[in-house]
Design goal:
This protein is α+β, with helices and mostly antiparallel strands. The chain has helices at 6-17, 63-75, 133-139, 143-150, and strands at residues 22-31, 38-43, 50-51, 54-55, 77-82, 88-95, 101-116, 128-131. The model has no long low-confidence stretch (mean pLDDT 89).
């Protein structure tokens, strides 16, 4: 039996564990203008940390439409207008139940909220709150998302 050289094995393992980033779409929901502007955060289902609504691409929907759909399902945004282009992106590691993580790039769309609903698909699974940009930036964990929020 022939074994590969250590450097070859190391290169193979590095490629095996370095997977390409998966893509998600997110909604940075806001209401109000100027100093009165507020941002909507929701808790994640797994850890309960504060995040913005986000999800995987949905067949038949554009990226900004997907972000708007996630805002409805996760936060109860009944009516809103999503920007045509992302206002930024951030990366994070998504952990699976078995402990492995994979990188995710998340495109962030600005969503001006017109109307909220008290009942929505994930209402019993999440909390939601409206906060200032500075509070929102402090509450989320991802450094790139903090910067996007502060730049609004």
């Amino acid at each position: 039996m022939r074994f590969p050289k250590l450097s070859t094995l190391g290169a193979f393992l590095a490629l095996f564990f370095r997977r390409p980033k998966r893509l998600q779409m997110a909604a940075l929901c806001h209401r109000g203008e100027g100093a009165a502007r507020e941002y909507l955060l929701v808790t994640s289902r797994g850890t309960g940390r504060w995040i913005i609504p986000k999800g995987w691409p949905i067949r038949g929907l554009s990226s900004n439409q997907t972000a708007l759909r996630e805002a409805w399902e996760e936060a109860g945004v009944r009516a809103g207008r999503a920007s045509d282009q992302p206002i930024g992106s951030y990366t994070y590691d998504k952990y699976r139940d078995h402990g492995f993580a994979f990188p995710v790039e998340t495109l962030v769309y600005s969503v001006a909220v017109d109307r909220m609903a008290d009942e929505f698909p994930e209402a019993v699974e999440r909390k939601r709150t409206w906060v200032s940009a500075e509070q929102a930036a402090e509450m989320v964990q991802e450094p790139e998302l903090k910067a996007i929020i502060r730049d609004q």
